[in-house]
Amino acid sequence: MKSLAKRITKITPSATLSISAKAKELKKKGIDIIDFGVGEPDFDTPSFIKNAAICAIKEGFTKYTPPSGIRELKEAVVEKFKKDNNLDYTVEQIAISCGAKHALYNCILALCNPKDEVIVFSPYWVSYLEMIKLVDAIPVIVKTKEADNFLPNIKTIESVITKRTKAIIINSPSNPTGCVFSEKILKEIAEIAIKYDLWIISDEVYEKIIFDSANHISIASLDKKIKSQTVVVNAVSKTYSMTGWRIGYIAGPSELIKAIDNIQSHSTSNPTSISQKAALAALNGPGEEIYKMRKEFQIRRDFLVSQLQDFKDVSFLKPQGAFYLFLNISKFFGKKAKNKILKNSLDVTEYLLEEAKVAVVPGSAFGDENYIRISFATSLEKIKKGVENIKTLLSTIF
Ligand SMILES: *Cc1c(COP(=O)(O)O)cnc(C)c1O
Fold it and tell me: Relative to the CA of 235, which ligand 1 atom is closest?
């Protein structure tokens, strides 16, 4: 048998998916696992959205649509950007894709030549690196620190820029750190992008899940110049608890959107017709459901923070958005836990799964060994039990 393509050997499977698979396996064996590994809201999709999909099926809206989505949905997306982000786009500047993941991948595919460099801030969302590698481009990582609220240092960004640098990926609110980029840092990044003529790919899927007085600003809204070299990626997935429906959207210069339309026409064809109708209902629907979910996430975050802030030997940034708490567990490295020395985030993750019956994701998946990611997209009751289990277990380590 001839070998598989080289690019396949460069990518690693999604660690978030593999941990939840392991947790599911244990659950199947009858072991009660508290799952803090999940990367999706635990709420049901609101019924008015489901009903729109049922209607679409009944009306026979079940055939091909234009590859980058139906016009009505693009118009709703244009409205959304105007209303929420103070951004003016035309429908020619919008593409609908099969989720934000697909949208991001298509952007990277449309923008990057082999060996082009793309700047990614770590800790990063798991798929950016692999997407960049899949198109034979090169991820260039700029580390950020908890002490700096996980915001990048602008001088460090500038120091890694080369002739090959093509784009910078921004993800605010961030998965996994929960940090929200301030207007100040966005302006600084925009300045650099303009100075060196770089694209900005802005992943804003958590824009609606935001706490306290934190404010989401889309970098594209800062001024006309930066807007002309920014691609904004968003989705209904996290906002409306619609992860399985697979609808994301892209806003950017029409030339890029045309390229993405072309890619989709030859690869996926249209995003599911039925899901497009559901997304349309979501975007045009009342905001109450979003508000309810956000409120619930805030209650859970507050609880989790209250339980962990005085707990010895861990540290974290209080999440300002998304539904993750990124917990520094590096003080346990080198210590003995059940006849084994804990060396890295995966050791701690496995130890927690086996002994505390809690599934988390190792920081290594996000490019930072010193952490584990705790998702609070699960009930308050489970969070109470899970965090108690974690604290009890970690207290036994000296
Ligand atoms: C979940 C997630 C995505 C992917 O969203 P889909 O619409 O489900 O493809 C993209 N970026 C980040 C940061 C995410 O957490």
Answer: 7
